[in-house]
Predict the structure.
Amino acid sequence: MTNTLIIMTKHVLVILFLIAYISMSSQETEKISLDQIINLAEKQSLDAFKAKNMYLANYWEYRSFKATQLPSLDLNLQPIEFRRMMTKRYDFDQNIDIFREQKTMESYANLALSQYIPYTGGTVYIDSDLSRLVNYTEDEVTTFSATLVRIGLNQPIFGFNEQKWAKKLSPLKFEKAKQEYIQSMQETKLKALDLFFNLLLVKIQKEIAESNVATADTLYKVGKRKFAILSTQREELLDLELSKFNAEIEVVKANQNLEKAKFSLNSFLGLENTTNKTPITPSIINDLYINQQQAIEIALKSNPDIIGIKQNQIEADRNLDKAIKENRFSASLMASFGLNQNAEVLPEAYINPLDQQVLVFGIKIPILDWGNRKGKKQMAQSNREVTYIESKQQLSDFKQNISLKILDFNLQAKIVQSAAKANDLANESYQLTKKRFLLGEADVLKVTNSMQARQSAQEKYIISIYTFWKYYYEIQQLTLYDFKENKNISIEFEKLIEK
């Protein structure tokens, strides 16, 4: 009685779930391949949008660096500077200093063209300026000062040259950003691959569950006929009925999982949740063999992690150079030559200009800092050595990782072929066992085991295909090379910026 009640309860639940599923599955379905899913992911997924904007940020950073290497033209204006204060002045009549009120208004303009010198760390410039000064005394006095032209140089000597290192690092960082964008798109492909095969697997599980329901229903009907003629025990009949309802429950679960898988895929691709896509089981490339040495050589030229290793080494060298330069004396040179004149009338400030010459040479010598500079130098030296050691280890790990993935990939095609044969054999065995049961030559347990073996073999076959493509795209992500087309993966970055 208890078993009958449980079976009836499950039966009602199954019917309700099936009604809900039928209403959801009434939408039109569209068959879609793995390549189509990957193309959609590259074009409209949120991951692709994020990768694009990260690249654009690096692009504009590099553009800013390039701009610093070009001449800059600046106009500096100070239209009004008004001062009213008591200031100390010398009184010649009394031969003492006294405080007097002073009111002035000054206006200033300067136009300067400057150019940074990357190789020396200095700056050369040419400028022109004009000043107007009004003194509000008993008699208002206005004077003008004009520098017709001035050429100057500001040059640090024996100091740390930041721009010299920036010239080495910025192009390398930008190249790394390009390769990182390509690599991030391969990561997007891998996510699309996972979601595609997840949907494909639950679709297969749903189809198997529906097939099991049909089989279980047929076996139950046969069991009832046998029970009627007393050739089957009641226990076996109850097992068949329970198996039938369990199979129906598995259909409901499979449908639920299928809807979840569709939702995940649509969400990743930025599609409406009502979009109903049915995945097509992809084939593999049986004759594709990847040479380990060739793949490693390709990866060493294009992988952003390798560029990152070079970047870390250059940054370590830069930090050591900075610590060394700051540990010793430094000097600076400032020199300029110009033509200057002043007058009470503006036009006269540009007549018969006089020479204006400036030369300043300064030296800074560290005498006592209690070992601070020496400590920074030693720390930079140690950090550099650690960076180079880590770089060797990272390079070794990188090569090993590629080698292992290629080894797995080159063997995976055979595993797929074996899984395909196992799937065919399991399906054939299931069909034979089913016929034997109908003829009374096999019991319920054998049929159940055969059904489970068929499902397991089919799932393993799909997983083996997934593993094949996962290995392939992981190798593609490491090498940024399309081994199907035998060419480097490239992107038209100019169009990317235009969009």
In short: The chain has two domains: 2-61+167-313+386-498, 75-117+120-160+330-365.
